[in-house]
Amino acid sequence: MSSMAITGGAGGIGAALVRKLEAAGQRTISLDLEPSAEASECHVLDVSDEVAVAKAFRAAETLAGLACIAGTNARGRVEGLSWDEWNRVMAVNVRGAMLAMKHASGRLRNGGSIVLMSSVSAKIGTDGYVAYHTSKGALLGLMRAASGEFAPRGIRVNAVSPGWVDTAFTDRALAEQPDGEAVRAMAGDAHILGRMARPEEIADAIVFLMSDAASFVTGTELIVDGGFLCRR
Q1: The CATH number of the domain covering residues in 3-163+199-225
Q2: Active-site residue, 132 included
Q3: Among 118, 133, 148, 183, which residue's Cβ finds the most Cβ atoms within 10 Å?
Q4: One of 132, 150, 169, 228 is an active-site residue; which one?
Q5: 8-35 pLDDT, tens per residue?
């Protein structure tokens, strides 16, 4: 049976995706710093480590799809962000997605699907998160380039761009703010729907892009932001 590989499959959106796919009878493979108790197969690794990523995909058989969800963040402005922090964000968010595609591609069956995790942050500017915003914009460029490269094999490549999502990742980002709870309330109100997304709602969008229902969708950014950008 072919599998769906998910980087960042142990928490947040990735874990929600694993649960949905497994509930539908789809075998999943999680690649994450933390183990997944719900995926059929689990590789505990750093997605920016090419040796570890290559080894994990060599062990895989046929893949039906790949979702690159693993990500990190660093608070810092252009004038103050250290290169170590910049490089860490780029290594996980961009290099990690690139390495997963590079080493999963030989296992992907024709007609497979790749989904990258971008963000509405690629389209707006939030003071103090220059590395994160830049990385999410880079993922859209990577998605568009890869969609053309993989099209002759019938492999579709798309991206999902959420607004704020109620996950531990968001909790950590808010904890860095001196007025984190106020920012949380503001973040919910910034969406027309009046709240943050649930991880399962973003996972639903990924499931759609990976499914045959999206067979003519490639090179596309699917914005799932509860109307966040409508207020920008």
Answers
A1: 3.40.50.720
A2: yes
A3: 118
A4: 132
A5: 999 999 999 999 999 999 999 999 999 9
